[in-house]
Amino acid sequence: QGQFVESGGDLVQPGGSLRLSCTASGFTFSTYGMAWYRQTLGKEREMVAAVAKASGATNYEESVRGRFTISKDNAKNTVYLQMNNLKTEDTGVYFCNAGFKNPVFTSWGKGTQVTVSS
Q1: 32, 47 contact by CB (below 8 A)
Q2: pLDDT of residue 36
Q3: How far is CA 105 from the centre of its chain?
Q4: Residue 54: its pLDDT value, please?
Q5: Distance, CA of 77 to CA of 22 (rounded, Å)
Q6: Which residues of 26-57 are buried (b: 16+ CB within 10 A; e: fewer)?
Q7: How are beta strands 46-51 and 18-25 bridged, if at all?
Q8: Which of the residues in the chain have pLDDT under 70?
Q9: Burial class (CB in 10 A: 0-12, 13-18, 19+), 108
Q10: Phi/psi at 29 (nearest 5 deg)?
Q11: Least crowded by CB within 10 Å, which of 12, 71, 102, 115?
């Protein structure tokens, strides 16, 4: 089973930036696409960004496209999410998992809390 440790969440004002990190273990990181998910109170976890394993192709949820950038460092087993021009609706707990379209593993990390508020 994959194991994930997310970090980098914080309280920021609207328009601010954050960089989230997720370090993975328990599987061959370089052979999987990776994705970031967001969960807000009362809603199901949704994918916000994904990066393919080899091509580097990316996919973004419509509301974050142009503001968020996902990248992965295979040497460090880490996937990043650069979040710019943050909005209050970006508030939530962010998780990562392997997979480009759907989560590969049933195990999830603790996530990292992002709060966007003035």
Answers
A1: no
A2: 98
A3: 15
A4: 77
A5: 8
A6: eeebeebbbbbbbeeeeeebebbbbbebeeee
A7: unpaired
A8: 55
A9: middle
A10: -55, -40
A11: 102
| pLDDT at site 13 | 98
Q: Are strands 11-12 and 112-116 parallel, antiparallel or unpaired?
A: parallel
Instruction: For residue 50, give the amino acid letter.
Output: A
The Cβ of residue 2 has, within 10 Å, a number of other Cβ atoms equal to 21
With contact defined as beta carbons under 8 Å apart, do 103 and 49 qualify?
Answer: no
Copy the structure tokens of residue 72. 């992965």
Sheet holding 78-83, edge to edge: 3-7, 18-25, 78-83, 68-73
Residues 112/7, Cβ–Cβ less than 8 Å: yes
Q: 3-class DSSP state for residue 30?
A: helix
Residue 90 has φ and ψ, to the nearest 5°, of: -80, -10
Q: Are 78 and 109 in contact (CB under 8 A)?
A: no
Residue 79: exposure state from Cβ atoms within 10 A (0-12, 13-18, ≥19): buried
